[in-house]
Specification:
heterodimer; A: 106 residues; alpha/beta; Glutaredoxin; 38% helix; B: 307 residues; 6-stranded mixed β-sheet; two-stranded antiparallel sheet; 10 helices; 43% helix; 20% strand
């Protein structure tokens, strides 16, 4: 299962993680987000123990959303050592997201 | 009121012909290529004040009072560019007395029309480039109906064009220009006999490489009259051979040169095939006597690989 990230646990889960982190910014009312959702869940299973995969609801967590200037959803940010290293805006197939995580794992 | 037959005939006669070719082909293949080319809803973006309200997701606004714009992904649509060599050598063999004998240019034009017709059905963007010594015609790749009509009109003009001038080929220059001027990641379909000056082979291969460098997918239809141009099947008697591009003439007994000619052509062709393989360009041998189906089959296979 992908980790539920919020404004309060963001620092702990994402910024302080020693593994690469994928954060999916989504909203319940957004169609394309629902296409990406299951993909993120699959990735969470595939990369268990190797990377942190989380999702954050933009409606209930405006602080983090504002902090990273997320204006489009779905947006997927990739973090490594507390820094944004990659970004995917809009729905994307699984292989593209997996490739982006793999580059961070090397 | 009587129907003006001439006017009716002039209405996209070429398009209809292309339709027969394509549909006949697809029934034979039992697989339709017409799917998966729709525009896809990819993301919601916050609405910026002052922006056009056209794409606002009003249903979402109604439900949640949020103003978001819908954005669509169009990358599944293909931009296809058809390139036709219109040098004098492409007008071989001469169409005598209006007989429906096919030559290389008519073969290329009909094949191109068939492909264009398919693209039109799929609402893919198409562009056309015709070149001889320089680029004669170049259109942008668009998918509107008006644009398709324009491209068909250009193709029809090619059919009327007789071999009145000794137009030489400058494939390399044309391809270089094309590589720079069109959108990256297009599908480029070239119809040419690739009869270049032997000395400029390197330049020709460089131009093909240039296309690949700009991330284009390339299919090269090597249009030939196999019987005469590759196998040199002429009767055993003296002939007068005329180079249609330079006007140079030689009188020679066909048997005397056959072996050497076949040898040289084989060498040139294998070099072409090798270079294309090296640059990952699809090389398709298109004999004008074999019909359009081979052309379309190669084209569809290529499309399958792209998607």
């Amino acid at each position: 299962m992908a980790i539920e990230i919020t404004d309060s646990n963001f620092e702990e889960v994402v910024m302080k993680s020693d593994k690469p982190v994928l954060v999916d910014f989504w909203a319940e009312w957004c169609g394309p987000c629902r296409m990406v959702g299951p993909i993120v869940e699959e990735l969470a299973k595939d990369y268990e123990g190797k990377a942190v995969i989380g999702k954050i609801d933009v409606d209930s967590n405006p602080n983090v959303t504002m902090q990273f200037g997320v204006r489009n959803i779905p947006t997927i940010l990739f973090f490594k050592n507390g820094q944004v290293v990659d970004k995917q805006v809009g729905a994307a197939p699984k292989n593209i997201l997996a490739k982006k995580i793999d580059t961070q794992l090397v | 009121m009587p129907v003006n037959h001439q006017e009716v005939q002039s209405l996209s006669h070429l398009e209809l012909l292309a339709k027969q070719v394509v549909e006949g082909f697809i029934t034979g293949l039992h697989k339709s290529p017409f799917h998966g080319f729709s525009v896809e809803f990819a993301e919601h973006r916050l609405y910026n004040t002052g922006e056009s309200t056209r794409h606002i997701d009003w249903k979402l606004f109604g439900r949640t009072d949020k103003l978001f714009v819908k954005r669509f992904e169009e990358e599944t649509n293909l931009r296809c560019h058809i390139v036709i060599d219109n040098s004098a050598s492409m007008h071989y063999p001469e169409v005598k007395g209006g007989k429906s004998l096919q030559n290389k240019i008519t073969f290329s034009v009909y094949s191109a029309a068939a492909i264009l017709y398919m693209m039109k059905q799929q609402r893919d963007a198409i562009g056309l480039t015709v070149f001889s010594e320089q680029i004669d015609v170049q259109t942008q790749a668009k998918s509107s109906t008006a644009h398709h009509k324009l491209v068909f009109a250009h193709l029809e003009k090619l059919l009327e064009n007789k071999t009145d001038v000794n137009r030489k080929t400058a494939t390399a220059d044309a391809l270089h220009q094309l590589a720079e001027s069109i959108h990256k990641r297009s599908l480029i379909i070239i119809f040419s006999d690739m009869f270049e000056n032997i000395d400029s082979n390197e330049a020709l291969f460089k131009s093909l490489q240039h296309l690949k460098h700009n991330k284009h997918e390339v299919i090269l239809f090597h249009v030939t009259d196999k019987k005469h141009e590759l196998d040199f099947q002429f009767e055993n008697r003296p002939y007068r051979f005329v180079d249609v591009e330079t006007g140079e003439e030689i009188k020679v007994h066909s048997n005397l040169v056959r072996e050497k000619y076949i040898e040289a052509m084989k060498e040139y062709k294998s070099m072409l095939v090798h270079k294309c393989a090296q640059y990952k360009i699809d090389f398709v041998q298109a004999d004008i006597h074999e019909g359009y189906h081979q052309v379309l089959l190669a084209y569809l296979l290529k499309r399958e690989k792209l998607h």
